[in-house]
Amino acid sequence: MKSFIWGTVCAVLVLTVAASAAAPTGSGTTTVGLISKVIQDVSHKQIDKDWQKAQKGDPLASGDGVKTGERSIAIIKFLDNSLVRVRELSELTVSGKMDGGAFLKSVDLQNGVVGFSIQKQRPQEEFRFSSPTSVASIRGTGGLFATSDSTDTLIVIEGIVNFLNKLTGQSIDVHPGFTGIFGPGGTMTYRPATRTEIMTAEEASGNGSLKKLELELRDNQGKSKRLHIDIKE
């Protein structure tokens, strides 16, 4: 019953969010989505306000920020049902605007890692990830994007992503199963992704990944036993 009620609330909220995206809100901002999941330490920053503890269901307006602490995850659901999973120790800003009948969306990653599962974009629409040094333009795909110490890494597990370096203007199309890296000074690396990278991208984007949970159980005599459980996210 609780899951049914929550599903109904989410549906109403998404419809409300969709309606508000068609035009700016009273504060001049556009609603782009909501925080659909909060694990541990997640904060939400509205424009001209301080950081506050994030709650499941918080709507996100264009210009809002989201950040996570250690061992923490936030999942952002955009109006088109695209999902961005914000991994631990990450900070980003979401943006969106209407351009004619097209909804343009972007995630500016200041630091950290995000996994993404982006719905196929309609004509003239776009979904972009950016950092201080690069831009990843996505038409509908899954993978991982990370930025740290002037190095940006893009791992693609589905679809094709155009990866542009802001410093040099150089761009590459990153195909499924490949990794693109822009290093300090604009150096570029493009190669097949390693098995570890693919597994990391799948886990980050939520594409059928498994999480491992380890529990220590004790019986009446004080003897302990470890129980390992695989949990699908």
Specify the overall morphology. Answer: globular
Distance between the termini: 21 Å
Q: Regions with pLDDT < 50 over 5+ consecutive residues? A: 2-27, 208-219, 227-233
Instruction: Work out the helix count.
Output: 2
Sheet having the most strands: 17 strands, mixed
| Helical percentage | 10-25%
How much is the average pLDDT? Answer: 82
Instruction: Report the structural category.
Output: mainly beta
Please trace the helix and strand order, writing H or E for each element. HEEEEEEEEEEEEEEEEEHEE
What radius of gyration results from the CA coordinates? 19 Å
Number of strands: 19
Portion in strands: over 45%
Any descriptors?
two-stranded antiparallel ribbon; 19 strands; 13% helix; 233 residues; 52% strand; mainly beta; disordered C terminus
Give the SSE layout.
Layout: H1 2-21, E1 31-39, E2 42-45, E3 51-53, E4 59-61, E5 65-68, E6 73-78, E7 83-86, E8 91-99, E9 102-117, E10 126-130, E11 134-138, E12 142-148, E13 151-158, E14 161-165, E15 171-174, E16 178-182, E17 188-192, H2 195-205, E18 210-218, E19 224-232
Parallel strand pairs: 9-10
Antiparallel strand pairs: 1-4, 1-6, 2-3, 2-5, 5-8, 6-7, 7-9, 8-9, 9-12, 10-11, 11-14, 12-13, 13-16, 14-15, 16-17, 18-19
Structure notes:
This protein starts with a helix and ends with a strand. It contains 2 helices and 19 strands. 13% of the residues lie in helices and 52% in strands. The protein has a 17-stranded mixed β-sheet that branches. A two-stranded antiparallel sheet has the order 18-19. Strand 12 (142-148) and strand 13 (151-158) form a beta hairpin. With 233 residues, it is mainly β. It is globular.
